[in-house]
Design a protein that fits this description.
globular; 22% strand; binds zinc ion; binds ligand BES; 5-stranded mixed sheet; 614 residues; alpha+beta; 9-stranded mixed sheet
Protein backbone atom coordinates (compact mmCIF):
# COMPACT_ATOMS: atom_id res chain seq x y z
CA UNK A 1 0.00 0.00 0.00
CA UNK A 2 1.48 3.32 -1.07
CA UNK A 3 0.01 6.55 -2.36
CA UNK A 4 0.89 7.31 -5.98
CA UNK A 5 0.56 11.08 -5.70
CA UNK A 6 1.39 13.40 -2.78
CA UNK A 7 -1.96 15.14 -3.31
CA UNK A 8 -4.25 12.11 -3.45
CA UNK A 9 -5.30 9.17 -1.29
CA UNK A 10 -5.28 6.95 -4.40
CA UNK A 11 -3.34 3.79 -3.64
CA UNK A 12 -0.86 2.01 -5.90
CA UNK A 13 -2.54 -1.36 -5.31
CA UNK A 14 -6.02 -0.15 -6.29
CA UNK A 15 -7.48 -0.23 -9.81
CA UNK A 16 -7.99 3.19 -11.41
CA UNK A 17 -11.36 4.54 -12.52
CA UNK A 18 -11.89 4.57 -16.29
CA UNK A 19 -15.40 6.01 -16.53
CA UNK A 20 -17.68 8.23 -14.44
CA UNK A 21 -21.40 8.85 -14.97
CA UNK A 22 -22.63 11.91 -13.13
CA UNK A 23 -26.18 13.08 -12.37
CA UNK A 24 -26.16 16.57 -10.93
CA UNK A 25 -29.20 18.43 -9.60
CA UNK A 26 -28.27 22.11 -9.16
CA UNK A 27 -29.96 23.68 -6.17
CA UNK A 28 -29.23 27.39 -6.44
CA UNK A 29 -31.28 28.16 -3.33
CA UNK A 30 -28.74 26.32 -1.14
CA UNK A 31 -25.66 26.55 -3.42
CA UNK A 32 -25.37 22.78 -3.45
CA UNK A 33 -25.45 20.01 -6.05
CA UNK A 34 -27.45 16.91 -5.18
CA UNK A 35 -25.64 14.20 -7.04
CA UNK A 36 -24.79 10.66 -7.92
CA UNK A 37 -21.62 9.28 -9.47
CA UNK A 38 -21.29 5.84 -11.04
CA UNK A 39 -17.62 4.88 -11.13
CA UNK A 40 -16.29 2.10 -13.36
CA UNK A 41 -12.91 0.64 -12.41
CA UNK A 42 -10.42 -0.79 -14.89
CA UNK A 43 -10.65 -4.15 -13.09
CA UNK A 44 -12.84 -5.74 -10.39
CA UNK A 45 -11.47 -5.17 -6.91
CA UNK A 46 -11.77 -6.87 -3.56
CA UNK A 47 -10.92 -5.01 -0.38
CA UNK A 48 -10.80 -1.31 0.40
CA UNK A 49 -10.88 1.31 -2.33
CA UNK A 50 -9.80 4.84 -1.42
CA UNK A 51 -11.35 7.88 -3.09
CA UNK A 52 -10.64 11.58 -2.61
CA UNK A 53 -13.36 13.90 -1.34
CA UNK A 54 -13.47 17.39 0.14
CA UNK A 55 -16.49 18.85 1.91
CA UNK A 56 -18.89 16.29 0.41
CA UNK A 57 -21.74 14.69 2.33
CA UNK A 58 -21.91 11.05 1.26
CA UNK A 59 -25.42 9.61 1.52
CA UNK A 60 -24.99 6.07 0.20
CA UNK A 61 -22.68 3.74 -1.66
CA UNK A 62 -24.39 1.07 -3.73
CA UNK A 63 -23.42 -1.92 -5.83
CA UNK A 64 -25.36 -0.94 -8.98
CA UNK A 65 -25.45 -4.51 -10.32
CA UNK A 66 -27.80 -5.74 -7.60
CA UNK A 67 -28.72 -2.46 -5.91
CA UNK A 68 -27.31 -3.50 -2.54
CA UNK A 69 -25.45 -1.17 -0.21
CA UNK A 70 -21.67 -1.34 -0.01
CA UNK A 71 -19.93 -0.66 3.33
CA UNK A 72 -18.17 2.71 3.32
CA UNK A 73 -16.51 5.13 5.67
CA UNK A 74 -15.94 8.82 5.15
CA UNK A 75 -12.97 9.73 7.32
CA UNK A 76 -13.69 12.28 10.02
CA UNK A 77 -10.05 13.38 9.90
CA UNK A 78 -9.77 16.22 7.44
CA UNK A 79 -6.37 16.59 5.82
CA UNK A 80 -5.97 20.34 5.24
CA UNK A 81 -4.59 19.73 1.74
CA UNK A 82 -6.02 16.41 0.57
CA UNK A 83 -9.44 16.48 2.22
CA UNK A 84 -11.24 13.36 3.49
CA UNK A 85 -10.65 9.87 2.09
CA UNK A 86 -13.78 7.86 1.34
CA UNK A 87 -13.11 4.16 1.89
CA UNK A 88 -15.45 1.69 0.18
CA UNK A 89 -15.23 -2.06 0.86
CA UNK A 90 -15.53 -4.06 -2.33
CA UNK A 91 -16.01 -7.73 -3.07
CA UNK A 92 -15.08 -8.29 -6.67
CA UNK A 93 -16.83 -5.10 -7.76
CA UNK A 94 -15.90 -2.97 -10.75
CA UNK A 95 -18.81 -0.55 -10.48
CA UNK A 96 -19.74 1.69 -7.56
CA UNK A 97 -22.65 4.11 -7.32
CA UNK A 98 -22.23 6.92 -4.79
CA UNK A 99 -24.95 9.41 -3.86
CA UNK A 100 -23.78 12.61 -2.22
CA UNK A 101 -24.30 16.36 -1.86
CA UNK A 102 -21.71 19.09 -2.38
CA UNK A 103 -21.20 21.85 0.17
CA UNK A 104 -21.81 25.57 -0.45
CA UNK A 105 -18.11 26.02 0.33
CA UNK A 106 -16.94 23.45 -2.26
CA UNK A 107 -13.45 24.67 -3.18
CA UNK A 108 -13.96 24.12 -6.92
CA UNK A 109 -17.21 26.02 -7.24
CA UNK A 110 -18.07 29.65 -7.25
CA UNK A 111 -21.77 30.36 -6.83
CA UNK A 112 -22.77 33.86 -7.89
CA UNK A 113 -26.06 35.37 -6.78
CA UNK A 114 -28.03 37.37 -9.40
CA UNK A 115 -26.71 40.73 -8.11
CA UNK A 116 -23.16 39.41 -8.61
CA UNK A 117 -23.76 38.84 -12.35
CA UNK A 118 -23.73 41.33 -15.19
CA UNK A 119 -27.43 41.09 -16.02
CA UNK A 120 -28.39 40.72 -12.35
CA UNK A 121 -31.32 38.47 -13.24
CA UNK A 122 -30.12 34.91 -12.72
CA UNK A 123 -27.55 33.06 -10.62
CA UNK A 124 -24.35 31.63 -12.11
CA UNK A 125 -22.03 28.80 -11.05
CA UNK A 126 -18.73 27.62 -12.52
CA UNK A 127 -15.88 25.23 -11.70
CA UNK A 128 -12.12 25.50 -11.36
CA UNK A 129 -10.75 22.02 -10.64
CA UNK A 130 -7.00 22.35 -11.16
CA UNK A 131 -5.01 21.42 -9.20
CA UNK A 132 -6.89 19.34 -6.60
CA UNK A 133 -10.46 20.60 -6.44
CA UNK A 134 -12.42 18.08 -8.55
CA UNK A 135 -12.80 16.08 -5.31
CA UNK A 136 -15.00 18.85 -3.91
CA UNK A 137 -17.55 18.19 -6.69
CA UNK A 138 -17.55 14.37 -6.80
CA UNK A 139 -15.61 11.54 -5.12
CA UNK A 140 -12.81 10.40 -7.42
CA UNK A 141 -9.20 9.36 -7.65
CA UNK A 142 -8.20 12.99 -7.97
CA UNK A 143 -4.74 12.46 -9.42
CA UNK A 144 -3.65 13.23 -12.98
CA UNK A 145 -2.20 9.72 -13.12
CA UNK A 146 -5.80 8.62 -13.64
CA UNK A 147 -7.61 9.34 -16.91
CA UNK A 148 -11.38 9.03 -17.16
CA UNK A 149 -14.09 9.27 -19.76
CA UNK A 150 -17.42 10.56 -18.46
CA UNK A 151 -20.96 11.53 -19.14
CA UNK A 152 -22.95 14.03 -17.18
CA UNK A 153 -26.59 15.05 -16.81
CA UNK A 154 -27.01 18.53 -15.38
CA UNK A 155 -30.49 19.23 -14.05
CA UNK A 156 -30.94 23.02 -13.98
CA UNK A 157 -33.66 25.72 -13.98
CA UNK A 158 -35.05 26.11 -17.50
CA UNK A 159 -34.11 29.82 -17.75
CA UNK A 160 -30.43 28.82 -17.59
CA UNK A 161 -28.14 26.85 -19.84
CA UNK A 162 -25.14 24.70 -19.13
CA UNK A 163 -21.80 24.34 -20.89
CA UNK A 164 -19.10 21.76 -20.24
CA UNK A 165 -15.63 20.83 -21.38
CA UNK A 166 -17.30 17.90 -23.13
CA UNK A 167 -19.55 17.18 -26.12
CA UNK A 168 -23.08 18.55 -25.72
CA UNK A 169 -25.54 15.75 -26.39
CA UNK A 170 -28.96 17.32 -25.82
CA UNK A 171 -31.16 19.65 -23.82
CA UNK A 172 -34.37 17.91 -22.85
CA UNK A 173 -37.09 17.51 -20.24
CA UNK A 174 -36.16 15.47 -17.15
CA UNK A 175 -37.62 11.95 -17.11
CA UNK A 176 -39.15 10.00 -14.25
CA UNK A 177 -38.12 6.45 -13.39
CA UNK A 178 -34.36 6.26 -13.31
CA UNK A 179 -33.14 9.35 -15.21
CA UNK A 180 -31.77 10.85 -11.99
CA UNK A 181 -29.70 7.70 -11.30
CA UNK A 182 -30.51 7.94 -7.57
CA UNK A 183 -29.17 11.50 -7.29
CA UNK A 184 -32.55 12.62 -5.93
CA UNK A 185 -36.25 11.74 -5.97
CA UNK A 186 -38.25 12.08 -9.17
CA UNK A 187 -40.37 14.75 -7.48
CA UNK A 188 -37.30 16.98 -7.39
CA UNK A 189 -35.65 15.80 -10.62
CA UNK A 190 -38.83 16.30 -12.66
CA UNK A 191 -40.15 19.39 -10.86
CA UNK A 192 -41.80 22.18 -12.83
CA UNK A 193 -39.34 24.45 -14.60
CA UNK A 194 -36.34 22.09 -14.72
CA UNK A 195 -34.40 20.92 -17.77
CA UNK A 196 -31.60 18.42 -18.26
CA UNK A 197 -28.48 19.21 -20.28
CA UNK A 198 -26.55 16.08 -21.22
CA UNK A 199 -22.88 15.88 -22.08
CA UNK A 200 -20.36 13.19 -22.88
CA UNK A 201 -16.58 13.21 -22.87
CA UNK A 202 -15.19 10.47 -25.06
CA UNK A 203 -11.51 11.29 -24.64
CA UNK A 204 -9.93 10.21 -21.34
CA UNK A 205 -8.95 13.20 -19.20
CA UNK A 206 -7.32 13.73 -15.80
CA UNK A 207 -9.95 14.83 -13.23
CA UNK A 208 -8.54 18.38 -12.99
CA UNK A 209 -9.85 19.00 -16.52
CA UNK A 210 -13.47 18.41 -15.53
CA UNK A 211 -15.41 21.68 -15.97
CA UNK A 212 -18.86 23.20 -16.31
CA UNK A 213 -20.63 26.54 -16.03
CA UNK A 214 -24.36 27.16 -15.56
CA UNK A 215 -26.03 30.52 -16.01
CA UNK A 216 -27.66 32.81 -18.51
CA UNK A 217 -25.11 31.97 -21.19
CA UNK A 218 -25.08 32.84 -24.91
CA UNK A 219 -22.52 32.60 -27.71
CA UNK A 220 -21.13 34.00 -30.95
CA UNK A 221 -19.55 31.95 -33.68
CA UNK A 222 -15.95 33.02 -34.38
CA UNK A 223 -14.53 30.16 -36.45
CA UNK A 224 -15.27 26.73 -37.93
CA UNK A 225 -14.57 25.00 -34.61
CA UNK A 226 -14.86 27.92 -32.23
CA UNK A 227 -17.74 29.63 -30.51
CA UNK A 228 -17.21 32.16 -27.76
CA UNK A 229 -19.61 31.83 -24.84
CA UNK A 230 -20.25 34.35 -22.09
CA UNK A 231 -23.02 35.67 -19.88
CA UNK A 232 -25.72 36.81 -22.33
CA UNK A 233 -24.64 40.45 -22.58
CA UNK A 234 -24.45 41.60 -26.22
CA UNK A 235 -21.61 44.07 -25.56
CA UNK A 236 -19.48 41.39 -23.84
CA UNK A 237 -20.19 38.81 -26.55
CA UNK A 238 -19.38 41.26 -29.34
CA UNK A 239 -16.14 42.42 -27.72
CA UNK A 240 -15.13 38.78 -27.10
CA UNK A 241 -15.95 37.77 -30.68
CA UNK A 242 -13.76 40.60 -31.96
CA UNK A 243 -10.90 39.87 -29.58
CA UNK A 244 -10.80 36.18 -30.49
CA UNK A 245 -11.42 36.43 -34.22
CA UNK A 246 -7.91 35.08 -34.95
CA UNK A 247 -8.39 31.83 -33.03
CA UNK A 248 -8.69 29.54 -36.05
CA UNK A 249 -5.39 30.86 -37.43
CA UNK A 250 -3.73 29.93 -34.16
CA UNK A 251 -5.25 26.43 -34.15
CA UNK A 252 -3.81 25.91 -37.65
CA UNK A 253 -0.36 27.05 -36.51
CA UNK A 254 -0.62 24.67 -33.57
CA UNK A 255 -1.51 21.78 -35.84
CA UNK A 256 1.40 22.53 -38.11
CA UNK A 257 3.83 22.61 -35.22
CA UNK A 258 2.52 19.91 -32.89
CA UNK A 259 0.28 17.56 -34.89
CA UNK A 260 -3.49 17.12 -35.30
CA UNK A 261 -5.88 18.94 -32.99
CA UNK A 262 -7.48 15.94 -31.29
CA UNK A 263 -10.35 17.58 -29.37
CA UNK A 264 -12.65 18.47 -32.25
CA UNK A 265 -14.01 21.76 -30.84
CA UNK A 266 -12.05 24.66 -29.45
CA UNK A 267 -14.71 26.82 -27.80
CA UNK A 268 -14.01 29.67 -25.40
CA UNK A 269 -15.96 30.65 -22.30
CA UNK A 270 -15.52 34.16 -20.92
CA UNK A 271 -16.31 34.07 -17.21
CA UNK A 272 -17.32 36.75 -14.72
CA UNK A 273 -14.45 38.95 -13.39
CA UNK A 274 -14.03 36.76 -10.31
CA UNK A 275 -12.50 33.92 -12.38
CA UNK A 276 -9.26 33.22 -10.46
CA UNK A 277 -6.97 32.57 -13.46
CA UNK A 278 -6.17 34.21 -16.77
CA UNK A 279 -7.19 31.06 -18.53
CA UNK A 280 -7.82 27.38 -17.83
CA UNK A 281 -7.25 24.79 -20.52
CA UNK A 282 -10.46 22.81 -20.03
CA UNK A 283 -10.61 20.55 -23.10
CA UNK A 284 -12.97 21.52 -25.94
CA UNK A 285 -13.82 24.69 -24.00
CA UNK A 286 -11.18 26.96 -22.53
CA UNK A 287 -12.23 29.13 -19.58
CA UNK A 288 -11.04 32.76 -19.65
CA UNK A 289 -11.02 35.83 -17.43
CA UNK A 290 -12.84 38.81 -18.97
CA UNK A 291 -9.70 40.89 -18.27
CA UNK A 292 -8.12 39.40 -21.41
CA UNK A 293 -10.61 41.36 -23.50
CA UNK A 294 -8.72 44.59 -23.97
CA UNK A 295 -9.86 45.56 -27.44
CA UNK A 296 -6.41 45.19 -28.98
CA UNK A 297 -6.23 41.44 -29.67
CA UNK A 298 -3.55 41.02 -26.98
CA UNK A 299 -5.81 38.49 -25.26
CA UNK A 300 -4.61 36.22 -28.03
CA UNK A 301 -1.56 35.39 -25.95
CA UNK A 302 -3.64 33.79 -23.21
CA UNK A 303 -5.68 31.93 -25.84
CA UNK A 304 -2.42 30.78 -27.49
CA UNK A 305 -1.33 29.42 -24.11
CA UNK A 306 -4.55 27.55 -23.37
CA UNK A 307 -4.69 26.29 -26.95
CA UNK A 308 -1.12 25.00 -26.64
CA UNK A 309 -2.27 22.91 -23.65
CA UNK A 310 -4.40 20.92 -26.11
CA UNK A 311 -1.14 19.16 -26.95
CA UNK A 312 1.03 19.71 -23.87
CA UNK A 313 -0.96 19.13 -20.69
CA UNK A 314 -4.18 17.72 -22.07
CA UNK A 315 -2.74 15.12 -24.49
CA UNK A 316 0.43 14.55 -22.46
CA UNK A 317 -0.28 15.16 -18.78
CA UNK A 318 1.99 15.49 -15.75
CA UNK A 319 1.69 12.36 -13.63
CA UNK A 320 1.56 14.36 -10.41
CA UNK A 321 1.98 18.00 -9.52
CA UNK A 322 5.66 17.35 -8.76
CA UNK A 323 6.08 17.25 -12.55
CA UNK A 324 3.88 20.29 -13.21
CA UNK A 325 6.62 21.86 -15.38
CA UNK A 326 5.87 19.17 -18.01
CA UNK A 327 2.48 20.85 -18.41
CA UNK A 328 3.35 24.50 -18.04
CA UNK A 329 6.95 24.67 -19.30
CA UNK A 330 6.10 22.87 -22.54
CA UNK A 331 2.96 24.95 -22.92
CA UNK A 332 4.82 28.22 -22.40
CA UNK A 333 7.30 27.15 -25.06
CA UNK A 334 4.48 26.10 -27.43
CA UNK A 335 2.51 29.31 -26.69
CA UNK A 336 5.50 31.43 -27.73
CA UNK A 337 5.96 29.48 -30.93
CA UNK A 338 2.32 30.16 -31.81
CA UNK A 339 2.66 33.85 -30.85
CA UNK A 340 5.83 34.12 -32.92
CA UNK A 341 4.05 32.67 -35.95
CA UNK A 342 0.99 34.92 -35.72
CA UNK A 343 2.35 38.10 -34.13
CA UNK A 344 6.03 38.05 -35.05
CA UNK A 345 9.41 37.61 -33.38
CA UNK A 346 9.42 40.94 -31.56
CA UNK A 347 6.24 40.22 -29.63
CA UNK A 348 7.50 36.72 -28.83
CA UNK A 349 10.76 38.24 -27.53
CA UNK A 350 8.81 40.68 -25.35
CA UNK A 351 6.92 37.77 -23.84
CA UNK A 352 10.15 35.87 -23.23
CA UNK A 353 11.58 39.01 -21.60
CA UNK A 354 8.58 39.51 -19.31
CA UNK A 355 8.87 35.84 -18.40
CA UNK A 356 12.60 36.14 -17.71
CA UNK A 357 12.02 38.97 -15.23
CA UNK A 358 9.24 36.92 -13.64
CA UNK A 359 11.64 34.00 -13.20
CA UNK A 360 14.36 36.17 -11.67
CA UNK A 361 11.81 37.64 -9.22
CA UNK A 362 10.64 34.17 -8.16
CA UNK A 363 14.21 33.35 -7.08
CA UNK A 364 13.92 36.17 -4.56
CA UNK A 365 10.47 34.97 -3.41
CA UNK A 366 11.73 31.43 -2.81
CA UNK A 367 15.16 32.32 -1.44
CA UNK A 368 14.34 30.62 1.85
CA UNK A 369 12.61 27.70 0.19
CA UNK A 370 14.75 26.77 -2.80
CA UNK A 371 12.82 23.52 -3.38
CA UNK A 372 10.33 25.52 -5.42
CA UNK A 373 12.99 26.91 -7.72
CA UNK A 374 13.43 23.36 -9.09
CA UNK A 375 11.57 22.00 -12.10
CA UNK A 376 11.05 18.61 -10.48
CA UNK A 377 9.65 19.40 -7.03
CA UNK A 378 8.73 17.48 -3.92
CA UNK A 379 5.25 18.65 -2.93
CA UNK A 380 4.67 16.21 -0.09
CA UNK A 381 2.69 18.14 2.54
CA UNK A 382 2.46 21.21 0.26
CA UNK A 383 -0.71 22.76 -1.12
CA UNK A 384 -0.08 23.37 -4.86
CA UNK A 385 -2.10 26.60 -4.70
CA UNK A 386 0.37 27.98 -2.12
CA UNK A 387 3.47 27.38 -4.25
CA UNK A 388 2.01 28.33 -7.63
CA UNK A 389 4.71 30.34 -9.36
CA UNK A 390 6.39 31.27 -12.63
CA UNK A 391 9.14 28.69 -12.08
CA UNK A 392 7.51 25.72 -13.87
CA UNK A 393 6.47 28.06 -16.69
CA UNK A 394 9.61 30.08 -17.22
CA UNK A 395 12.38 27.75 -16.08
CA UNK A 396 10.59 25.02 -18.04
CA UNK A 397 10.47 27.31 -21.07
CA UNK A 398 14.17 28.13 -20.64
CA UNK A 399 15.09 24.44 -20.46
CA UNK A 400 13.29 23.63 -23.72
CA UNK A 401 14.64 26.76 -25.40
CA UNK A 402 18.14 25.67 -24.33
CA UNK A 403 17.62 22.28 -26.00
CA UNK A 404 16.30 24.04 -29.11
CA UNK A 405 19.47 26.17 -29.27
CA UNK A 406 21.62 23.07 -28.89
CA UNK A 407 20.09 20.94 -31.62
CA UNK A 408 18.58 23.61 -33.90
CA UNK A 409 14.97 24.49 -34.48
CA UNK A 410 14.25 21.97 -37.23
CA UNK A 411 15.49 19.03 -35.15
CA UNK A 412 13.69 20.29 -32.05
CA UNK A 413 10.41 20.67 -33.95
CA UNK A 414 10.71 17.13 -35.19
CA UNK A 415 11.47 15.93 -31.68
CA UNK A 416 8.45 17.73 -30.23
CA UNK A 417 6.05 16.21 -32.75
CA UNK A 418 7.47 12.78 -32.05
CA UNK A 419 7.22 13.28 -28.28
CA UNK A 420 3.58 14.30 -28.51
CA UNK A 421 2.69 11.40 -30.80
CA UNK A 422 4.50 8.93 -28.53
CA UNK A 423 2.81 9.89 -25.25
CA UNK A 424 -0.59 11.27 -26.20
CA UNK A 425 -3.40 10.43 -23.78
CA UNK A 426 -0.80 9.37 -21.23
CA UNK A 427 0.29 10.82 -17.91
CA UNK A 428 4.07 10.85 -17.59
CA UNK A 429 6.85 12.04 -15.30
CA UNK A 430 10.08 14.00 -15.76
CA UNK A 431 12.19 10.83 -16.08
CA UNK A 432 10.05 9.48 -18.91
CA UNK A 433 10.62 12.74 -20.76
CA UNK A 434 14.38 12.69 -20.09
CA UNK A 435 14.69 9.07 -21.25
CA UNK A 436 12.80 9.89 -24.43
CA UNK A 437 14.99 12.95 -24.98
CA UNK A 438 18.22 10.99 -24.51
CA UNK A 439 17.18 8.18 -26.78
CA UNK A 440 16.02 10.51 -29.56
CA UNK A 441 18.82 13.06 -29.30
CA UNK A 442 21.82 10.82 -28.60
CA UNK A 443 24.57 12.58 -26.66
CA UNK A 444 22.35 15.45 -25.47
CA UNK A 445 23.28 14.72 -21.84
CA UNK A 446 26.90 15.52 -22.71
CA UNK A 447 25.94 18.93 -24.11
CA UNK A 448 23.38 20.00 -21.50
CA UNK A 449 23.43 19.20 -17.79
CA UNK A 450 19.95 17.66 -17.67
CA UNK A 451 20.19 16.94 -13.95
CA UNK A 452 21.07 20.54 -13.06
CA UNK A 453 18.16 21.74 -15.19
CA UNK A 454 15.55 19.41 -13.75
CA UNK A 455 16.73 18.77 -10.19
CA UNK A 456 18.91 21.79 -9.43
CA UNK A 457 17.79 24.98 -7.69
CA UNK A 458 18.05 28.49 -9.14
CA UNK A 459 18.58 29.56 -12.73
CA UNK A 460 21.20 27.49 -14.62
CA UNK A 461 24.07 29.50 -16.08
CA UNK A 462 23.19 28.50 -19.64
CA UNK A 463 19.69 30.04 -19.40
CA UNK A 464 19.29 33.13 -21.55
CA UNK A 465 17.62 36.51 -21.77
CA UNK A 466 15.99 37.15 -25.13
CA UNK A 467 17.88 39.13 -27.74
CA UNK A 468 15.79 41.75 -29.51
CA UNK A 469 16.08 45.48 -30.14
CA UNK A 470 12.81 46.45 -28.48
CA UNK A 471 13.46 44.24 -25.48
CA UNK A 472 16.96 45.64 -24.91
CA UNK A 473 15.77 49.20 -25.44
CA UNK A 474 12.96 48.89 -22.88
CA UNK A 475 15.17 47.27 -20.25
CA UNK A 476 17.79 50.01 -20.65
CA UNK A 477 15.10 52.71 -20.40
CA UNK A 478 13.94 51.09 -17.17
CA UNK A 479 17.51 51.20 -15.85
CA UNK A 480 17.76 54.90 -16.75
CA UNK A 481 14.69 55.62 -14.62
CA UNK A 482 16.89 54.90 -11.61
CA UNK A 483 18.93 57.95 -12.57
CA UNK A 484 15.74 59.94 -12.85
CA UNK A 485 15.14 59.82 -16.60
CA UNK A 486 11.62 59.11 -17.78
CA UNK A 487 11.04 57.79 -21.30
CA UNK A 488 9.94 60.51 -23.75
CA UNK A 489 6.61 60.58 -25.59
CA UNK A 490 8.48 59.72 -28.73
CA UNK A 491 10.12 56.67 -27.16
CA UNK A 492 6.83 55.25 -25.92
CA UNK A 493 4.79 56.21 -28.99
CA UNK A 494 4.47 52.60 -30.17
CA UNK A 495 4.18 50.97 -26.80
CA UNK A 496 1.20 48.75 -26.05
CA UNK A 497 0.39 46.91 -22.84
CA UNK A 498 3.24 44.41 -23.04
CA UNK A 499 5.92 47.06 -23.61
CA UNK A 500 4.69 48.98 -20.55
CA UNK A 501 4.47 45.79 -18.55
CA UNK A 502 8.09 44.94 -19.34
CA UNK A 503 9.17 48.49 -18.53
CA UNK A 504 7.37 48.60 -15.18
CA UNK A 505 8.53 45.13 -14.18
CA UNK A 506 12.14 46.19 -14.74
CA UNK A 507 11.95 49.32 -12.59
CA UNK A 508 13.40 49.07 -9.06
CA UNK A 509 10.97 47.52 -6.56
CA UNK A 510 10.40 50.93 -4.97
CA UNK A 511 11.31 54.47 -5.95
CA UNK A 512 10.72 58.02 -4.67
CA UNK A 513 7.00 58.77 -4.33
CA UNK A 514 7.47 61.84 -6.52
CA UNK A 515 8.85 59.66 -9.33
CA UNK A 516 5.75 57.48 -9.18
CA UNK A 517 3.36 60.39 -9.44
CA UNK A 518 5.56 61.99 -12.11
CA UNK A 519 5.36 58.88 -14.27
CA UNK A 520 1.62 58.62 -13.78
CA UNK A 521 0.93 62.29 -14.53
CA UNK A 522 2.64 61.83 -17.85
CA UNK A 523 1.41 58.39 -18.90
CA UNK A 524 -1.75 57.78 -16.86
CA UNK A 525 -0.74 54.21 -16.01
CA UNK A 526 -3.03 54.01 -12.97
CA UNK A 527 -5.97 54.50 -15.33
CA UNK A 528 -4.87 51.86 -17.84
CA UNK A 529 -7.61 49.54 -19.08
CA UNK A 530 -4.93 46.86 -19.26
CA UNK A 531 -4.78 45.20 -15.85
CA UNK A 532 -1.24 43.94 -16.42
CA UNK A 533 -0.08 47.55 -16.71
CA UNK A 534 -2.35 48.93 -14.04
CA UNK A 535 -1.38 46.27 -11.48
CA UNK A 536 2.36 46.56 -12.22
CA UNK A 537 2.05 50.30 -11.68
CA UNK A 538 -0.02 49.97 -8.49
CA UNK A 539 2.51 47.50 -7.11
CA UNK A 540 5.24 50.10 -7.58
CA UNK A 541 3.01 52.76 -6.05
CA UNK A 542 2.34 50.66 -2.94
CA UNK A 543 6.00 49.69 -2.50
CA UNK A 544 6.90 53.39 -2.86
CA UNK A 545 4.20 54.21 -0.30
CA UNK A 546 2.14 56.53 -2.47
CA UNK A 547 -1.07 56.38 -0.48
CA UNK A 548 -2.93 58.58 -2.96
CA UNK A 549 -3.32 55.47 -5.12
CA UNK A 550 -4.91 53.32 -2.42
CA UNK A 551 -8.44 54.15 -3.56
CA UNK A 552 -7.56 52.77 -7.03
CA UNK A 553 -5.94 49.73 -5.37
CA UNK A 554 -9.15 49.15 -3.43
CA UNK A 555 -11.31 49.51 -6.52
CA UNK A 556 -9.08 47.08 -8.45
CA UNK A 557 -9.13 44.50 -5.65
CA UNK A 558 -12.91 44.71 -5.61
CA UNK A 559 -13.56 44.44 -9.32
CA UNK A 560 -11.37 41.47 -10.33
CA UNK A 561 -10.63 38.11 -8.73
CA UNK A 562 -7.77 36.98 -10.97
CA UNK A 563 -5.03 35.79 -8.60
CA UNK A 564 -2.31 37.17 -10.87
CA UNK A 565 -3.53 40.61 -9.72
CA UNK A 566 -4.65 39.82 -6.17
CA UNK A 567 -1.36 38.16 -5.16
CA UNK A 568 1.05 41.03 -5.94
CA UNK A 569 -1.27 43.76 -4.67
CA UNK A 570 -2.05 42.11 -1.32
CA UNK A 571 1.59 41.04 -0.97
CA UNK A 572 2.87 44.57 -1.67
CA UNK A 573 0.51 45.91 1.00
CA UNK A 574 1.57 43.60 3.82
CA UNK A 575 5.12 42.51 3.04
CA UNK A 576 8.40 44.15 4.02
CA UNK A 577 10.49 45.07 7.00
CA UNK A 578 9.31 48.63 7.45
CA UNK A 579 6.29 49.25 9.64
CA UNK A 580 3.24 49.05 7.45
CA UNK A 581 0.45 49.08 10.00
CA UNK A 582 -1.83 51.30 7.96
CA UNK A 583 -1.39 49.18 4.85
CA UNK A 584 -2.05 45.99 6.77
CA UNK A 585 -5.27 47.31 8.26
CA UNK A 586 -6.25 48.55 4.80
CA UNK A 587 -5.51 45.13 3.22
CA UNK A 588 -7.56 43.36 5.87
CA UNK A 589 -10.50 45.69 5.47
CA UNK A 590 -10.53 45.45 1.68
CA UNK A 591 -10.28 41.66 1.86
CA UNK A 592 -13.12 41.38 4.34
CA UNK A 593 -15.29 43.48 2.04
CA UNK A 594 -14.23 41.79 -1.21
CA UNK A 595 -13.92 38.23 0.05
CA UNK A 596 -17.42 37.10 -0.90
CA UNK A 597 -16.82 38.14 -4.50
CA UNK A 598 -13.67 35.94 -4.84
CA UNK A 599 -13.58 32.29 -5.92
CA UNK A 600 -12.88 30.00 -2.91
CA UNK A 601 -9.39 29.22 -4.29
CA UNK A 602 -8.55 32.93 -4.40
CA UNK A 603 -10.02 33.41 -0.91
CA UNK A 604 -7.63 30.73 0.36
CA UNK A 605 -4.61 32.22 -1.38
CA UNK A 606 -5.26 35.76 -0.09
CA UNK A 607 -5.86 34.39 3.41
CA UNK A 608 -2.52 32.65 3.32
CA UNK A 609 -0.73 35.84 2.15
CA UNK A 610 -2.32 37.88 4.92
CA UNK A 611 -1.74 35.29 7.62
CA UNK A 612 1.97 35.08 6.75
CA UNK A 613 2.47 38.77 7.39
CA UNK A 614 -0.07 39.79 10.03
N1 LIG B 1 -3.39 25.58 -16.15
C1 LIG B 1 -3.09 26.94 -15.92
C2 LIG B 1 -3.89 27.53 -14.80
C3 LIG B 1 -3.73 26.82 -13.48
C4 LIG B 1 -2.49 26.39 -13.04
C5 LIG B 1 -4.83 26.60 -12.69
C6 LIG B 1 -2.38 25.73 -11.82
C7 LIG B 1 -4.70 25.94 -11.49
C8 LIG B 1 -3.48 25.51 -11.04
C9 LIG B 1 -3.31 27.80 -17.18
O1 LIG B 1 -2.99 27.15 -18.35
C10 LIG B 1 -2.41 28.99 -17.09
O2 LIG B 1 -1.22 28.80 -17.04
N2 LIG B 1 -2.95 30.20 -17.11
C11 LIG B 1 -2.18 31.41 -17.11
C12 LIG B 1 -2.17 31.97 -18.52
C13 LIG B 1 -0.91 32.66 -18.92
C14 LIG B 1 0.33 31.86 -18.68
C15 LIG B 1 -0.98 33.08 -20.37
C16 LIG B 1 -2.83 32.40 -16.15
O3 LIG B 1 -3.90 32.10 -15.62
O4 LIG B 1 -2.27 33.44 -15.89
ZN1 LIG C 1 -0.92 26.80 -18.53
Amino acid sequence: MAPIDPHSFTDSTHPLTTHISLSLYFDFSTSTIISSALLTLCAPHTGDLLLDTRSLTVKSVIDPINNTPLPFCLSTDVDPIKGQPLTVSLTNNSKILITFVTSPSSSALQWLTPPQTFNKKFPFVYTQCQSIHARSIFPCQDTPTSRVRYNAKLNIPHQLSAVMSARHVERRAPLAGGDSCFACDDSLWCAEGRVVEEFTMEQPIPPYLFAFAVGEIAYREVGPRTKVFAEAVPAVLDAAAKEFAGTEDMIRVGEKLFGDYDWERFDLLVLPPSFPYGGMENPRMVFLTPTVIKGDASGAQVVAHELAHSWTGNLITNKTNDHFWLNEGFTTYAERRIVEAVQGEDIAALNIGIGWKGLVDEMERFKDNMEFTKLLTNQEGIDPDDVYSQVPYEKGFQFLWRIERQIGRAAFDEFLKKYIAAFKFQSIDTFTFLDFLKSNIPGIEKEIDLKIWTEGTGIPSDAMEPVSNIYTKIVSLANEFKQGRMPSEEEVANWHGQEWELYLENLPKSVEASQVTGLDCRYRLSESKDYEVKVAFLQLAIASRCSEYYNIVEKTLKEVGRMKYLRPLYTALVQGNVKKEEEKIFAQRVFSEARETYHPIAQGVVESILSKHL
